[in-house]
Every structure is written in structure tokens, then in C-alpha cells.
């Protein structure tokens, strides 16, 4: 089954490490929601024959939406698409936006998975990351989320300059004590056009070396594995049965349709993305024009590359699926690669799959570009 993605491109302020597309002009929310619903109404007909089993509100900050705004989007989705009653309906949220009544309202609307942008439970680290929330707020919100949600995820950003594994463990241990079923762990990156990148260039801060980053990644992965979390994608860890159904679609070459500025879609071997401009998006939709900026149909080689790289970042390449899709035997074509990856402890072959080890995940991008 396929997935639906809704991009909510608003934030209260810009975090210093973030290069996602969003606006801080919240006055545009009503116009945006009208345009988003119109985009859904105008395009849904193409997907009448398919069923969806995941809906994901990402951003930006979807938890900035009011109850009625969120309800109106969900109502539009339900009246335009065939959505399975067993769907995973997720929303990304920031701790400072949530209280008990908002969390209850999510449950009442059928949202059954919440992804919480905690990032750290150390106040100095949160200040470094320019986040609006603090440790106490986070702990209160985690307890509330746990009270109402069986399925939720906590995010951590690690490898801050000078951070040790003991610092990271302080945050992880509290995550683990709450028995959170899913953790997303991201290495801090210094993306262009962010304040952190500028500070790095101006030598106001320094970046951890690649060796330190690798050491922290391996320690974090091993620690979470030992405490009951399966490492099922480069940055994702879950208890059994709590993998993200929606995000897994990105990694398993499954169709998903995205709405809103900068949203990406993949359907019938075609990828496209909307313009990353809120003003342009709203204007185009209001003029009954398409908000799509770029669209490409993947040829056989491109499909193969995507399948291999996405599978390797996830739970590995399934030999049978590969053969069905590309009509060739992976084990024969890539015999040399399998041997190199295995002998360097970068991958293991088991139960009809080749899957990267933690050390392999660390080098996933390099492995993909070198061998595929
Ligand atoms: S990290 Fe999240 S909250 Fe911060 S600016 Fe980016 S999208 Fe907004």
C-alpha cells in the first residue's frame, strides 16, 4: 500500500542547523491550508485505484497547526483517498507546542504515531542547537505522550562539538527508561545556508573529526542494540513491531504522494517535487496551475541504483525482490562486491538478504557510490 505526505512549512523560528524548507510567517497558515486542500482535491482523482496505509504530517512544524486546521486537512484526505482503517497516521511535533489537551485532540482525530523533536535532554546542548524547549519541558511532554500514545518516536541529534558518548548516553538513558518504542538518531550536520555553517566558516565553533563522528555512531548503535532496539535504517532504531511504516516506504521503493511546497512524490517509477516556495506554491494553486517543479521518470539503470542504495540504507537488499524487479541474479552480478563487503565486515548475507553492519551503515554513501 502507498503513503501520503503533507508538508507543513511553518516554524516559530529557524534552528541554527536546519536547512529544511519552511517560513516563520505564520499569518500565511490559513491561505496555505486552503491551497493544500485544493492541491489534494485537484490531484486525488489520479490515485482512486490505490489504497493508502500511512499518512505523515512533516515539516517544518506540524504541531503549530490548530486542532481545526489539522481536522480540516484530515477530512480532505479522507474524502479524497481510500485510506485503510489500519493506517499509521503520524505527526511530527515540537515539545513546546504540546500540552495534554493537544495530545488528546491528536488521539481523537485518529493520529496514532507521534514523532517528538527532543534532540537532547541537556539544556546547554539545546541552547547550542538554538532549540526553543528545555529539559524539564521535554520530560513533561514525553510523559504525556507516553500516557496517550503506544507508538511514538523520540529524536536525538548527536556529535555536537566536544560531546562525549557519556553526554549522549545521558539523553539516551532517559529515552530508554521511558520505553520509547522508536528512536531516530541524527549526526549533527553543518549544512550550507545555516547559522552553524557560517559559525564554522568564521571559526567560532569547530566540528568533530570524522573519526570522532564514526566512534560516536558505532557506540550509539551498539548501545541501542544492546538495550533492545533494532537498527533497521542508518538513523532509525526500533523495538519489534514499531518501525515507521511511512518512512519505510521511502526506503523500500514503495509509492508515496506528497503535498505542499518542497514535498516529494514517487509513483509508478516516477519522481517529482513541488516548488520550495510558499508564495509560489499558493499562487500557482490559486491559478489552478501545477505546483510541480521537476518530474523525472526513472530508467532501468536509475531504478536499479535507487533500489540498491535505498535498500542498503534500510534492511538490506532482498535477492528475490531484486531478481523480480530487474530480471537478474544479484548474487551472480555482484559476487565480487559481496565478497569485499563481507571480508571487511561491512555487510552480512543472511536469509536471502545482504544487509550492512553498523560499520557498513557508517560508510553507506561511500559503498553505494563506489560499488553501485
Ligand atoms: S529543525 Fe524543525 S523546528 Fe527547527 S527550524 Fe528546522 S524544521 Fe523548524
Which keywords apply here?
binds iron/sulfur cluster, 2 domains, nine-stranded mixed β-sheet, three-stranded antiparallel β-sheet, globular, TIM Barrel, 372 residues, alpha/beta, Arc Repressor Mutant, subunit A
Write a structural description.
By secondary structure, this protein is α/β, with parallel strands linked by helices. The chain contains 16 helices and 15 strands. It has helices at residues 29-43, 67-80, 100-108, 123-128, 135-148, 165-177, 195-201, 210-226, 245-251, 278-286, 300-313, 319-326, 330-333, 335-343, 358-362, 364-371; strands spanning 2-8, 51-59, 82-93, 113-119, 152-158, 182-187, 230-233, 236-238, 256-259, 264-267, 270-274, 292-297, 317-318, 347-350, 353-356. Strands 7-8-6-5-4-3-2-1-9 form a nine-stranded mixed beta sheet, sandwiched between helices. A three-stranded antiparallel beta sheet has the order 10-11-12, with no helix packed on it. The mean pLDDT is 96.
Short recap of the structure:
The chain is α/β, with parallel strands linked by helices and 372 residues long.
Set out the fold topology.
Elements: E1 2-8, H1 29-43, E2 51-59, H2 67-80, E3 82-93, H3 100-108, E4 113-119, H4 123-128, H5 135-148, E5 152-158, H6 165-177, E6 182-187, H7 195-201, H8 210-226, E7 230-233, E8 236-238, H9 245-251, E9 256-259, E10 264-267, E11 270-274, H10 278-286, E12 292-297, H11 300-313, E13 317-318, H12 319-326, H13 330-333, H14 335-343, E14 347-350, E15 353-356, H15 358-362, H16 364-371
Parallel strand pairs: 1-2, 1-9, 2-3, 3-4, 4-5, 5-6
Antiparallel strand pairs: 6-8, 7-8, 10-11, 11-12, 13-15, 14-15
Helix pairs in contact: 1-2, 1-10, 3-5, 6-8
Amino acid at each position: 500500500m502507498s503513503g501520503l505526505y503533507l508538508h507543513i512549512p511553518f516554524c516559530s523560528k529557524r534552528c541554527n542547523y536546519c536547512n529544511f524548507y519552511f517560513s516563520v510567517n505564520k499569518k500565511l497558515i490559513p491561505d496555505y491550508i486552503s491551497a493544500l486542500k485544493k492541491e489534494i482535491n485537484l490531484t486525488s482523482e489520479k490515485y482512486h485505484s490505490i489504497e493508502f496505509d500511512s499518512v505523515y504530517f512533516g515539516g517544518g512544524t506540524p504541531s503549530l497547526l490548530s486542532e481545526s486546521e489539522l481536522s480540516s486537512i484530515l477530512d480532505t484526505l479522507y474524502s479524497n483517498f481510500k485510506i485503510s482503517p489500519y493506517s499509521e497516521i503520524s505527526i511530527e511535533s515540537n515539545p513546546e507546542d504540546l500540552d495534554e489537551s493537544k495530545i488528546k485532540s491528536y488521539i481523537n482525530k485518529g493520529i496514532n504515531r507521534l514523532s517528538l523533536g527532543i534532540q537532547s535532554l541537556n539544556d546547554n546542548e539545546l541552547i547550542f542547537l538554538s532549540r526553543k524547549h528545555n529539559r524539564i519541558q521535554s520530560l513533561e511532554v514525553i510523559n504525556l505522550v507516553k500516557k496517550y500514545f503506544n507508538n511514538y518516536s523520540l529524536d536525538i541529534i548527536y556529535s555536537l562539538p566536544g560531546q562525549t558518548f557519556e553526554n549522549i548516553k545521558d539523553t539516551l538513558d532517559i529515552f530508554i527508561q521511558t520505553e520509547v518504542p522508536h528512536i531516530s538518531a541524527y549526526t549533527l550536520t553543518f549544512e550550507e545556508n545555516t547559522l552553524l555553517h557560517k559559525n564554522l566558516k568564521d571559526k567560532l565553533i569547530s566540528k568533530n573529526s570524522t573519526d570522532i563522528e564514526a566512534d560516536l555512531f558505532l557506540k550509539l548503535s551498539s548501545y541501542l542494540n544492546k538495550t533492545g532496539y533494532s537498527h533497521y535504517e542508518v538513523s532509525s532504531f526500533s523495538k519489534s513491531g514499531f518501525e515507521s511504516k511511512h518512512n519505510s516506504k521511502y526506503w523500500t521503493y514503495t509509492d508515496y504522494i506528497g503535498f505542499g511546497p518542497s514535498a516529494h512524490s514517487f509513483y509508478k517509477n516516477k519522481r517529482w517535487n513541488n516548488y520550495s516556495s510558499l508564495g509560489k506554491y499558493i499562487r500557482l494553486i490559486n491559478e489552478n496551475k501545477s505546483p510541480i517543479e521537476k518530474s523525472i521518470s526513472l530508467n532501468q539503470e536509475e531504478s536499479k541504483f535507487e533500489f540498491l542504495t535505498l535498500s542498503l540504507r534500510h534492511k538490506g537488499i532482498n535477492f528475490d525482490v531484486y531478481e523480480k524487479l530487474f530480471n537478474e541474479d544479484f548474487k551472480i552480478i555482484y559476487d565480487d562486491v559481496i565478497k569485499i563487503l563481507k571480508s571487511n565486515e561491512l555487510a552480512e548475507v543472511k536469509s536471502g538478504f545482504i544487509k550492512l553492519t553498523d560499520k557498513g551503515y557508517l560508510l553507506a554513501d561511500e559503498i553505494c557510490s563506489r560499488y553501485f
